[in-house]
Design a protein that fits this description.
575 residues; alpha/beta; Glutaredoxin; 6-stranded mixed β-sheet; 44% helix; binds iron/sulfur cluster; metal-binding; iron-sulfur
C-alpha cells in the first residue's frame, strides 16, 4: 500500500472517531511508510480532518454569500443557542460547530451538513427542532433533508441535451461503432469545452492523452465542485449518474485508459453509496470490467476517491496532488496532466458536466450538439441559479442565451436584479447596463454559478464574503495570493467602516493586478476579479462609499495605524 491511500486511511479514522489521534497517525505512518510530519501536514491542509476530539455530531454550516442573504446569521445563532457551543471552537461531547464554504446547496440555503448529511432551508425554528431531536436520540438519517434541486429545462424542452430521457449504456453502444480516433474526432468536431470553468477544448485533451504512449493511463472525473453558488454537478450525480459514468468509459475507450477515478468532494459523500450502486449495476451489465460489451481488451474500472475539503483541489494539478496523498497545493508543473498526470502517467481530468456532455454527444451525434449554441460554444450548458430569484435551480440553457432571459419571467424570475455574479466569486460581476450580454465564449462564459442580488443587498458585503473565501482557501504557497488576498479583504473592511479614499481604490486595482499576474494557480489568478470589476462597474455605489472628504479621514486613520504598528514593532524588537 502506498501513500495514494492516505486520504482514505485518514477518512476511516475521521469518520469512526470524529478525529485522527496521534496513535492513528503513527499507525498510518507505519502502514504507508510516510513520515508522521508529512501526515500531519496533510491533515492540517484539509478542512474536514480534525486532530482534536470532536462531538458526536459535527455540524458544518455554510457561510457563503447566498447563505448569508437567506438568513445565515440567525441560523448560526440558533445552533449556538440550542447546542450551547460556539462556532469554530472546541465543542462538547455531543456537538462541534464549524463554518464551512459553499456546500453545493445554494438553491436551498441556509444549509448545513451534520455528520456529512444535508440539512437545508434552515430557520431558527428548524434548528431548534433538529437539535432537540438529536438530544432525544432520534436517528440523524431520518432528520436529514432531501436535496433534489429543481431542474428547469431549456426553453424549448425537447431540444435539451442533458435533461432528456436516459437509457443506460446507449452512448457506449453508439461509441463502440467507432474507433477511438473517431470518438476523439467527434468530440473535437463538437467543440466541446471543459465546463467546470476552464473551457479547455476536450478533444485536444483526449487526443493528447491518447497519443502519449504509456502502460497505464487514467481518466479522472473532477467532482470537486467548490465554486460558491454552483450545484449543477451535484444534481447531475443525483439525477443522471450513469451519464457521467458513461462519459468516463468513453474517455477511457478513446484514450486507452483502463482506470477511472471519481474525485468526489467530501461535502457530497452522502450520495457516494448511490454512485457505488450505479457502478455495480454497470458492472453487472458488463459496461464496466473486462472486455466491455464483448469488445476484446476494452477494459475499464472506476473507483471513488473522497476529497477532504479544499477549494483549490478543484484545479486539476492540485487534485492530482491530493489523489497522490499530499497537500492539495498546485505544484509548479512543466508537463501537462495528459503527459505526466496521476502517478506520472497520462491522465485526463474532466469535470462532471463535461463528461455528461461527452456521453450525449456520442449518443446523439455531434451535429445535434452543433445545431445549438454559438459558433465558438455550441450546444447547451447547465447553470446553477440562486439568490434573489423566485425560481432557483439548475437550468439547461442554450449557449448564447442573454442574461436578461435568464432573469426573466420564463426562467429564474429575478426580483429587482442589480448585481449579478457570473461564474462564482472567481468570475465577473455584471451591472444592469450589461443584461443583454450573452452566456457564451464570444461574450461572457459561466462555469455554472449564476448568483443574483437585488438592490437591497450591500455590494461591499458580497465582496467581503468573496474575499474572505479566497483568503481562507488560498493554499499559501505563493506570497502574492497569500498576502494579497488578505490585503484586499482588509481594504473591503476598511471601506465598510467608511474610512477609505480614492487611493484605496487605486491600490485595490494595483494589488489585483499583482495577484493575478504573479500567482501560481487559478485561485490567485482569479480571486481579485469580482472586486476589481465591481469598483469599475458600480462606480456610483463606490463614490457614495468614498466621499471626497474622506481623504483627510484616511490620512488620519493611516497615521494611527502606522504609530501603533511602529510601537508594536519596537516592543517586539526589545523582547
Ligand atoms: Fe496556492 Fe494561491 Fe498560489 Fe494557487 S495562487 S498555489 S492557491 S497560494
Amino acid at each position: 500500500m502506498d501513500r495514494t491511500h492516505l486520504l482514505n486511511e485518514l477518512w476511516q479514522y475521521q469518520l469512526k472517531f470524529g478525529f485522527i489521534s496521534d496513535k492513528a497517525i503513527s499507525r498510518i505512518s507505519k502502514k504507508l511508510n510516510v513520515s508522521i510530519v508529512e501526515i500531519e501536514s496533510v491533515i492540517t491542509f484539509y478542512h474536514f480532518f480534525h486532530q482534536k476530539p470532536t462531538g458526536e455530531y459535527i455540524i458544518y454550516l455554510n457561510n457563503s454569500i447566498i447563505s448569508d442573504i437567506k438568513g445565515y446569521e440567525a441560523v448560526k445563532a440558533a445552533f449556538e443557542k440550542e447546542t450551547g457551543c460556539t462556532f469554530n471552537e472546541d465543542g462538547d461531547k455531543e456537538f462541534s460547530l464549524f463554518d464551512t464554504s459553499c456546500i453545493g446547496m445554494s438553491d436551498q440555503e441556509p444549509a448545513a451538513l451534520i455528520n456529512f448529511l444535508p440539512f437545508t432551508d434552515l430557520t431558527p425554528n428548524k434548528v431548534k427542532h433538529i437539535i432537540a431531536s438529536l438530544k432525544n436520540g432520534e436517528n440523524l438519517e431520518d432528520l436529514a433533508s432531501k436535496t433534489k434541486s429543481k431542474i428547469q429545462y431549456h426553453p424549448e424542452g425537447e431540444k435539451a441535451i442533458i435533461f432528456r430521457p436516459y437509457e443506460m449504456g446507449k452512448s457506449i453502444e453508439e461509441g463502440l461503432k467507432f474507433t477511438p480516433e473517431e470518438i476523439v474526432n467527434k468530440i473535437s468536431k463538437a467543440k466541446l469545452l471543459g465546463l467546470g470553468g476552464a473551457f479547455f477544448p476536450v478533444g485536444y485533451k483526449w487526443n493528447s492523452c491518447k497519443n502519449n504512449e504509456a502502460d497505464t493511463k487514467y481518466i479522472i472525473c473532477n467532482a470537486d465542485e467548490g465554486e460558491p453558488g454552483t450545484f449543477k454537478d451535484r444534481a447531475l450525480f443525483q439525477y443522471l449518474p450513469g451519464l457521467v459514468i458513461e462519459g468516463m468509459i468513453l474517455a477511457g475507450y478513446a484514450t486507452g485508459a483502463k482506470e477511472g477515478i471519481i474525485y468526489l468532494r467530501a461535502e457530497y459523500q452522502y450520495f457516494k453509496d448511490k454512485i457505488e450502486d450505479v457502478l455495480s449495476v454497470f458492472r453487472k451489465a458488463n459496461l464496466l470490467g473486462e472486455n466491455i460489451l464483448g469488445v476484446k481488451d476494452f477494459d475499464f474500472e472506476i473507483r471513488i476517491q473522497l476529497g477532504a475539503g479544499s477549494y483549490v483541489c478543484g484545479a486539476a494539478s492540485a487534485l492530482i496532488e491530493s489523489l497522490e496523498g499530499r497537500r492539495g497545493e498546485p505544484p509548479v508543473r512543466f508537463w501537462s496532466a495528459t503527459k505526466h498526470g496521476f502517478r506520472h502517467k497520462p491522465t485526463v481530468v474532466n469535470n462532471v458536466e463535461t463528461l455528461a456532455y461527452a456521453s450525449r454527444i456520442i449518443e446523439l451525434g455531434e451535429d445535434h450538439f452543433l445545431s445549438m449554441g454559438t459558433e465558438e460554444s455550441p450546444g447547451t450548458k447547465l447553470l446553477s441559479i440562486s439568490g434573489d430569484v423566485a425560481k432557483p435551480g439548475i437550468y439547461e440553457i442554450e449557449f448564447g442565451t442573454s442574461i436578461i432571459d435568464l432573469l426573466g419571467i420564463e426562467m429564474s424570475q429575478a426580483t429587482s436584479p442589480y448585481f449579478i455574479q457570473v461564474s462564482g466569486p472567481s468570475g465577473e460581476c455584471v451591472n444592469n447596463t450589461e443584461f443583454n450580454r450573452r452566456i457564451c465564449k464570444e461574450d461572457i462564459m459561466c462555469g455554472g454559478s449564476f448568483m443574483v442580488f437585488n438592490r437591497t443587498r450591500d455590494i461591499l458585503n458580497i465582496l467581503r464574503n468573496f474575499m474572505e473565501f479566497f483568503k481562507e482557501e488560498s493554499c499559501g504557497v505563493c506570497t502574492p495570493c497569500r498576502a494579497g488576498n488578505y490585503i484586499l479583504t482588509e481594504k473591503v473592511k476598511k471601506m465598510q467602516r467608511g474610512l477609505s479614499s480614492q487611493e484605496d481604490i487605486e491600490e485595490i486595482k494595483q494589488w489585483g493586478k499583482i495577484i493575478k499576474l504573479s500567482s501560481r494557480c487559478g485561485l490567485g489568478k482569479s480571486s481579485p476579479n469580482s472586486l476589481i470589476y465591481a469598483v469599475d462597474k458600480f462606480k456610483d455605489y463606490f463614490n457614495l462609499k468614498i466621499p471626497p472628504t474622506n481623504e483627510f479621514l484616511n490620512v488620519e486613520f493611516d497615521m494611527e495605524d502606522a504609530v501603533q504598528e511602529f510601537d508594536s514593532f519596537i516592543k517586539d524588537t526589545q523582547t
